[in-house]
Amino acid sequence: MSDSAVEPEDVRHVASLARVDLDDEEVDRFVEQFADILDYFETLDEVPEVDSETDLANVMRDDEVRDSLDQDEALRNAPESEEGFFKGPKVS
Questions:
Q1: In which domain, by residue range, is 16 found?
Q2: Per-residue pLDDT, 16
Q3: Which of 19, 45, 69, 87 has its CA 20 to 30 A from that of 11?
Q4: Does the pTM of the predicted model rise above 0.90?
């Protein structure tokens, strides 16, 4: 475990915000994991900055205005459609 100051109350607070019930064993495990995550962020702070490339140019093509498909063409390859709309499986 690291020297980062992560308290069980912090873990319980985050769990309550996420509406997750944790038992004491889970809280202890997450205290260690949160501390490790904070250590990883501290390690990232040690990475030196890289000079940015100032001679970059836009390599993307210009937008072209074109006619879109009409409704019949858009639905032509749809496995199912209903009343002019794509029809998909119900999500429960």
A1: 8-45
A2: 94
A3: 45
A4: no
